[in-house]
Amino acid sequence: MPSPLAELHLHLEGTLEPELIFELARRNGVTLPYRDLDDLRARYRFRDLQSFLDLYYANMATLRTAADFERLTWAYAERAHAGGVRHAEVFVDPQAHTARGVPTETVLRGVAAGLGRAESELGLTSGIIVCVLRDRPVAEARRMLEESLAAGVPLLGIGLDSAEVGYPPSLFADVFTAAAEAGLRRVAHAGEEGPPEYLWQALDVLGVERVDHGVRCLEDDVLVRRLAAEQVPLTVCPLSNVRLRVVDDLAAHPLRRMLDRGLLVTLNSDDPAYFGGYVDDNLRQCRDTLGLTGAELATLAANSVRASFAGAGRKAELL
Ligand code: ES4
Ligand code: ZN
Predict the structure, then answer these.
(1) Helices and strands (DSSP H and E) totals, the chain
(2) How many CB atoms within 10 Å of residue 170?
(3) What is the rounded CA–CA span in Å between residue 11 and residue 217?
(4) What is the dihedral of CA 285, 286, 287, 290, to 10 degrees?
(5) Is pLDDT above 80 for 1?
(6) Per residue in 89-135, pLDDT tens?
(7) Residue 189 marked as a ligand binder
(8) Ligand number nearest to the C-alpha of 162
(9) To which protein family does this belong (predicted)?
(10) Can you tell me the distance from the alpha carbon of 26 to that of 139, in angstroms, rounded to the nearest whole number?
């Protein structure tokens, strides 16, 4: 892909490839409920977000040490860089690890080591966004934020992910206020499976600067006009939407419609090890299936840099 890209919607745990799952399981003495790679790969057909999350959380059992997280992060950085990514703001789910006895500090130190190596060896700049698991208790989210801030690792932001329907953003108003007071940037998944109302809450209750997914905004014309007027970035993930049945197939994806409505859309891979491709694969398949022009691809790349939290100097280098 031609233009430098920023990737803004990427779950590091969603870059855990099947081969690495088996390798880490062997090294860490974790027993997997799969016979072999083919048996594991056969489970990558999802009905919806929850059926994906069940496998995503199960496979994380193989990640135990800071070195494991460093390895995972470095592997992502190398692959993303090869696909044109020059800046990445990556999501991490600390609660998914503390729940099985791996401390937040272990996770974040490993991730930060991998990102440090990516910057020195590849020139890939980055930031860490810790995500609240919205289907777990609010008190646990508060603890996650405190532990993350105390981990001794620079943090860029706070996000909101996991099972969406039934867990409105407003539940986490206080956690997001505390994060903002600690200097963190705010983003949230909204309007992937959940209704447009969740985007309104993300904006007006949580005070987010970007919305992750947001594709269901198209059901609310007033909302679309606001997002366009304020140029709120939407981090769209087409291959993810196909695999999780948010859309019927890639040809039916509303990406083109979103661009035509004047929305600040960026293209991202979400959980590339699970959804059939990294960000360059998303771009290529959207170009081929939706007929995106060279100018539209360049717009998406420029949007990703503009929508990033990189400093003005770094943005100027990338634009
Ligand atoms: C996720 Cl696609 C998606 N949606 C919500 N939460 C997530 N965590 C990892 N991938
Ligand atoms: Zn996501």
Answers:
(1) 16, 8
(2) 15
(3) 22
(4) 120
(5) no
(6) 999 999 999 999 999 999 999 999 999 999 999 999 999 999 999 99
(7) yes
(8) 1
(9) Belongs to the metallo-dependent hydrolases superfamily. Adenosine and AMP deaminases family. Adenine deaminase type 2 subfamily.
(10) 35
Candidates 11, 12, 70, 61; CA nearest to 40 is 61
Judge residue 289's burial from the number of C-beta atoms within 10 Å of its C-beta, 0-12 exposed, 13-18 middle, 19 or more buried.
middle
User: In 3D, which of 284, 290, 237 has the Cα closest to residue 260?
Assistant: 290
Asked whether 159 and 188 are in contact (CB, 8 A), the reply is: yes
CA 235 to ligand 2 centroid distance, Å = 9
Q: For 270, which DSSP code?
A: B
Beta-carbon neighbour count of residue 32 at 10 Å?
Answer: 17
Helix (H) or strand (E) holding 24, with range, is helix 18-28
Alpha-carbon span 281 to 259, nearest angstrom: 19
Q: Is the minimum distance from the CB of 147 to ligand 1 under 6 angstroms?
A: no
Point out the ligand nearest to the CA of residue 193: 1
Considering the four listed CATH numbers 3.30.1360.140, 3.20.20.140, 3.40.50.720, 3.20.20.70, the one that applies to the domain covering 5-308 is 3.20.20.140
Rounded to the nearest integer, the mean pLDDT of the chain is 97
Q: What length does the chain have?
A: 319
With beta carbons less than 8 A apart as the criterion, state whether 230 and 201 touch.
Answer: no
CB 293: neighbour CB atoms within 10 A? 9
Give the per-residue pLDDT at 3. 77
Q: Which atom of ligand 1 is nearest to the CA of 131?
A: 8
